[in-house]
Amino acid sequence: SLLGQKRLQNMLDFVNKAKWDAWKSLGSVSQEEARQQYVDLISSLVGTEAPAVAAQPTGSTKGFQTLLVSTEDNITTIRLNRPEKKNAITVEMYNELIEALDLAGKDDSVITVITGSGDYYCSGNDLNNFTKIPEGGVEKLAKESGELLRRYVKVYIDFPKPLIGVINGPAVGVSVTLLGLFDVVYATEKATFHTPFSQLGQSPEGCSSYLFPKIMGAAKASEMLLFNKKLTAAQACEVGLVTEVFPESSFQSEVWTRLKAYAKLPRNSLALSKQLIRVVEKEKLHAVNDAEVERLVERWLSDECMQAIMSFFQAKSKL
Amino acid sequence: SLLGQKRLQNMLDFVNKAKWDAWKSLGSVSQEEARQQYVDLISSLVGTEAPAVAAQPTGSTKGFQTLLVSTEDNITTIRLNRPEKKNAITVEMYNELIEALDLAGKDDSVITVITGSGDYYCSGNDLNNFTKIPEGGVEKLAKESGELLRRYVKVYIDFPKPLIGVINGPAVGVSVTLLGLFDVVYATEKATFHTPFSQLGQSPEGCSSYLFPKIMGAAKASEMLLFNKKLTAAQACEVGLVTEVFPESSFQSEVWTRLKAYAKLPRNSLALSKQLIRVVEKEKLHAVNDAEVERLVERWLSDECMQAIMSFFQAKSKL
Amino acid sequence: SLLGQKRLQNMLDFVNKAKWDAWKSLGSVSQEEARQQYVDLISSLVGTEAPAVAAQPTGSTKGFQTLLVSTEDNITTIRLNRPEKKNAITVEMYNELIEALDLAGKDDSVITVITGSGDYYCSGNDLNNFTKIPEGGVEKLAKESGELLRRYVKVYIDFPKPLIGVINGPAVGVSVTLLGLFDVVYATEKATFHTPFSQLGQSPEGCSSYLFPKIMGAAKASEMLLFNKKLTAAQACEVGLVTEVFPESSFQSEVWTRLKAYAKLPRNSLALSKQLIRVVEKEKLHAVNDAEVERLVERWLSDECMQAIMSFFQAKSKL
User: Fold this and answer.
1) A22 touches chain B (CB under 8 A)
2) Who has greater pLDDT, B13 or B205?
3) Does domain C58-249+267-317 have CATH number 3.20.20.10?
4) Which of A8, A92, B171, B175 suits A125 as a labelling partner, its CA being 20 to 30 A distant?
5) Any chain A CB within 8 A of the CB of B197?
6) Is the ipTM of this complex over 0.85?
7) For residue range A181-218, what is the model confidence (pLDDT) as tens digits?
8) What is the rounded CA–CA span in Å between residue B256 and residue B246?
9) Among positive and negative, which fits the CA dihedral B149, B150, B151, B154?
10) In whole angstroms, what is the distance from residue A11 CA to residue A28 CA?
């Protein structure tokens, strides 16, 4: 919008003149003003968030706002349910996912499945998360966001039974990096896998800095994690990030037929075997998670990241 | 057979009524009876074991009952020799393999090769191993089997010179999981690779819980180790479990031409280079072996495993 | 040459008679004589080294004798520049590479590129390095060579920003093993990857004993590192040693278009993300480097290695 453009111009002028460091040292009034400009900028570009489609609980389903969760045939399915926002993960959705995974780990299902509603699997972090700047300022926002991310990834590291991704469309950011912590990943041929961290001045998370090189070697992992290479489903399967790719037309039926068969296997044997596979790395993965989050918080508070995000929005607003 | 069916029915009735936990708490007479029923059940279904074809020692060959071992052209070849049982590994064969590998590690051959007689490479653990229940009961059987397995895997972890698998046909169970400890694996196109652990209520061994995810990534490893996916030779090569696949018609000649060339390379250079590659992981691999065996012993003594094995035999008897 | 043949014959006669152990215990005069024969042998076969083409420094280029180094568009490019020797690495080139990488790590470029002049990427260690036997004898030569190698590999382990290999032709030996420490590796279809260590009685270095099995699994790594398998560019890409392969006709233009785009990404984000990926392994990699060098020094001083190198030259002289 024209207003968005105007606000963006204001913001960019502001940054060009004052720079981030200077901004951080400004008096409280100016800081307030600057923060407001930043919030306005982001909000105007991202657009007002539409209210999430209400979850439709059925069976043993708990009522979540951003997820559809159900248990059937020994399978607990967690479905990201903000299709109008490409299942971008808000703060609320992070919290609900942590709760849903915690419950799924403890319920009597044999396997747990994560998938998305609509055409996307998940478009990653909802950038609106960064516009609700709390009292304590951006430092507080960064620390809180970091802590939320750390807790979120932790649930995956500790998940006690087979976790299966049913990747129904494009996956971006943290929804890709976490795939290294899934046990099986089935993808439609329409899916793509994209981790554009450096483009936004950020750094990898979800234990991908450790697991991606382990899965595919550093030469392929770095092209994704450093240089923003977007993989097709076939490429992701070739490098071992995805278990198998299916034609879109038969994707759901083929995958769910398999999952139902898996869910009939001995429950304890599966859980204990999965834990056996993961336990060797668990301590290291927690350390990696901590290190990744620490670096990311530093990044969020850096000039470079700030400027990269603004460039991104500026480019977007010109389209 | 009809008799087998009858015994199976008895056994299943028994289990349905008393369950495993109850069975374990039964008085000594009933336990004896129950054990006998279990032994009868398994024996009747698996069939009386035919005596192994006597090994035909030639050259420097030591006389083994279940193996053919010979040293020629700087190559010590250990050939699993129970083709009529698809080279299933009995307790005797486990012990002979430990001894044969120990000797091969110390002899003056440059490389050591393991292969199979007949159409199979190896059909895994001989389930008859579980029917000879000793005085101490199933707990003792489980612990002894675990200790045997631990010693068997240990020999592979510590093997001091290049170890090469010549996979002449289908491979099942522990004969697959151990491949991560081989240095080179050549397979005929006829070979398949199958680790149906959870189907039998069990858990992975042979260091596969650690090495398979390392070789092929967790997404592909878990489909094998948790969900019983059987790989073709080409698939096993794609994920890195197999070095190269050959047409059946030229398999033996192509592979042995290469092996003879390898065996002419400087002996110490090969042994020391192999040790250099493996030493970094050795401590971890021993810990993994211990953890896997501990879990497997727990599994063998669990209700779930017992019932899964019985379901397996029941299904088999219905064919 | 006939003279070379004669000297070789002398040398082989000498070795056949006296053997290495005996040689080491010879009186000082004979040792001197033997050393001279050895030097003469190697020199006559390898040929007198042509003087390196003088480096042509441009822009911010520092004057190196064996490298062309320049910084442009945020990219520091280090070009091996002994095309007439297939970019074989002399002692001087090792030292210059250490210095050039040290400078590149500290300059304000965003990425660093290593590539080769002419048709080869790099033919590995210049064997002439072994002919300049110092006062202290072969023991001293071996130790010094080991220490130089250790320092050289160390620079790669610690390199603080994205390091990209542009593999313009065949790569041999240490120029291959080091690829596991690069972040991205682009190769022309003409490139090959060869590590003929055991053929020369040696053992792997460049952290390949640890990183190659991690990248491609032990079954494929051992065929390269133990059994001298030479990979095509496509094969190296399949196993994950190479990121992507390009047709020779468009190799340079496609790769440099990408590199220029990469060099525009946020500098700190890239450097910090790369460090995040590598830091988990850094301590282990230094330990691996030390162990590999120690083993290699032992190898260089062994009978077996000495004889393997002589056999190699003998075979070469017969062509």
Assistant:
1) no
2) B205
3) no
4) A8
5) yes
6) no
7) 999 999 999 999 999 999 889 999 999 999 999 999 99
8) 12
9) positive
10) 18
